[in-house]
Amino acid sequence: MGFLSVIAAAAAGFVFGGVWYGSLARPWMDAVGFTQEQIDSGAGKKPGAFLISFLMLLLVAGMMRHGFAMSGIESVGKGALAGFGIGAFMATPWIIINHAYGMKPFKLTLIDGGFATIGCTVIGLVLGLF
Q1: What is the pLDDT along the chain (130 residues), one digit of tens a residue?
Q2: What is the pTM assigned to this prediction?
Q3: CA 116/CA 118 separation, integer angstroms
Q4: DSSP for 28-70, written as a single string
Q5: How far apart are CA 121 and CA 124, in angstroms?
Q6: CB distance 13 to 123 below 8 Å
Q7: Can you give the residue ranges of every domain in the chain?
Q8: CA 24/CA 58 separation, integer angstroms
Q9: In angstroms, how far is CA 68 from the centroid of its own chain?
Q10: Cβ–Cβ < 8 Å for 9, 54
């Protein structure tokens, strides 16, 4: 059952990522310097990016489940709150550090940090369901 909850949580995070970046496509393209023509032609897309993303979300969900089990987090509310904490106070600060040294636009930091924070909240919520 634990493995299925990790897969479901990772899938929920992946779907949320599609909605997040899909709704922020224009600001994201501006922040990374891509044009619509480049996106349409496939420029900037790396083969397997979606597979890599899903595999990384599996790692995140798996480690979150482990932490939740060790901490006794067993409800939707506690799962969502713990996920929010992980995203807002662990993942997002790390993204901010990387973007600061990489001199990335702050708009990109907000977009990626928002995904990390809300995505971890979604993963935690789903883990709390199981």
Answers
A1: 699 999 999 999 999 999 999 999 999 999 999 888 888 787 656 778 899 999 999 999 999 999 999 999 999 999 999 999 999 999 999 999 999 999 999 999 999 999 999 999 999 999 999 8
A2: 0.93
A3: 6
A4: HHHHHT--HHHHHHTTTPPTTHHHHHHHHHHHHHHHHHHHHHH
A5: 5
A6: yes
A7: 2-129
A8: 23
A9: 18
A10: no
